[in-house]
Amino acid sequence: MCGLDCSDCPCFLARRNNNNELRKKTAEKWKIDYGWSELKPEDINCTGCLSSKNPHFKNCSQCHVRKCGTKKGLKNCGKCTGYDNCKKIISLHKTIPEGKNICDAQKTET
């Protein structure tokens, strides 16, 4: 949705492969990287942004960009007519600039 590839996300991979060691390593890393002190290995479970099935990682399930895109039936925000002026995606892309490149590429594909 936002340009990040869920299939590269360790949270998605840990669930898909039922990999408890990856869950543990990811929880520890994200505690440090993002300051999520309460994060536990069992929290590292996600079906990916485009999936309508749960579970979704806590940040993904609460993500305003994901909620908006899902409501509009989009697979990528770059396909949205309001993409260039969307405060939600602009704000998110400040944090994850690699996602912007993918959304921009989707915008040019018609």
Count up the helices: 6
Query: Can you tell me the number of structural domains?
Result: 1
What is the helix/strand order? Answer: HHHHHH
Which ranges are low-confidence, i.e. pLDDT below 50, for 5 or more consecutive residues?
Answer: none
Strand content is under 5%
Structural class: mainly alpha
* Total strands: 0
Q: Specify Rg, calculated over alpha carbons.
A: 14 Å
What portion of residues is helical? 40-55%
How would the global form be characterised?
A: elongated
Mean pLDDT: 91
The major sheet is characterized as: none
Distance between the termini: 17 Å
Task: Give a description of the structure.
- This protein has 110 residues and is mostly helical.
- The chain has one domain (6-108).
- Helix content is 51%, strand content 0%.
- It has six helices and no strands.
- It has helices spanning 10-16, 20-34, 58-61, 64-72, 87-95, 97-108.
- Helix 1 packs antiparallel against helix 2.
- The radius of gyration is 14 Å and the shape is elongated.
- The mean pLDDT is 91.
